[in-house]
């Protein structure tokens, strides 16, 4: 559903009440663009083959802004100027240092609001998944990647980020309206 700001065209929804069009008006204000449109994805992985596979999967799914870092030490310096919308981090990057990157990325990019992080791991045990979630990952994808699962999880987290940003913008507008009345 692509809608431009100020567009008068309303999407067709068979379940919307044609008399009021209220649902269509509400839904048309939800998305200014699809969550994955122009989304910036940062991949942090030390295995070149995995990086190339992730790039291919994401590009085939329509991602146009994919940045990669193969050395975990470079993450802090490179991620700040690109402002990722989603980060994929191999938890085994730099001898297990990937878990520490979650909190570092969130600290560096705290002004970005909700920054989704997907942990990538070759360890399929529940303990490895739980450690990644406890360290701050929003989701865990195990290797070898199922490309449909990976794309679905990326799209879900980008949707969550887009909604969080939309709520944040809405709250800023409402706060400005309240402040202008005072």
Give a brief rundown of this model:
This protein is 49% helix and 13% strand.
Helix and strand topology:
Blueprint: H1 22-30, E1 40-44, H2 48-60, E2 65-69, H3 75-82, E3 86-90, H4 93-96, H5 98-108, E4 117-121, H6 126-134, E5 139-142, H7 147-181
Parallel strand pairs: 1-2, 1-3, 3-4, 4-5
Helix pairs in contact: 3-5
Tally of contiguous helical segments: 7
- Name the quaternary structure: single chain
Percent in strands: 5-15%
Q: What can be said about the biggest beta sheet?
A: 5 strands, parallel
The ordered H/E elements are: HEHEHEHHEHEH
Number of strands: 5
Helix content: 40-55%
Shape: globular
Write down the Rg.
19 Å
Biggest sheet, spatial arrangement of strands: 2-1-3-4-5
Return the structural class. alpha/beta
List unreliable stretches of 5+ residues: 1-33
Q: Average pLDDT, to the nearest integer? A: 75
N-to-C CA distance: 38 Å
């Amino acid at each position: 559903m692509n809608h431009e700001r100020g567009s008068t065209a309303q999407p067709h929804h068979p379940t919307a009440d044609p008399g009021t069009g209220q649902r269509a008006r509400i839904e048309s204000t939800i998305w200014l663009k699809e969550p994955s449109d122009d989304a910036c994805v940062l991949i942090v992985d030390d295995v070149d083959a995995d990086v190339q596979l992730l790039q291919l999967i994401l590009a085939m799914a329509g991602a146009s802004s994919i940045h990669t870092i193969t050395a975990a030490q470079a993450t802090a310096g490179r991620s700040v100027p690109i402002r990722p919308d989603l980060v994929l981090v191999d938890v085994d990057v730099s001898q297990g240092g990937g878990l520490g990157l979650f909190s570092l990325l969130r600290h560096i990019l705290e002004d970005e609001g909700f920054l989704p992080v997907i942990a990538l791991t070759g360890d399929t045990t529940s303990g490895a998944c739980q450690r990644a979630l406890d360290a701050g990952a929003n989701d865990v994808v195990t290797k070898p990647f199922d490309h449909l699962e990976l794309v679905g999880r990326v799209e879900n987290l980008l949707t969550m980020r887009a909604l969080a940003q939309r709520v944040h913008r809405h709250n800023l507008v409402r706060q400005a309206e309240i402040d202008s009345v005072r």
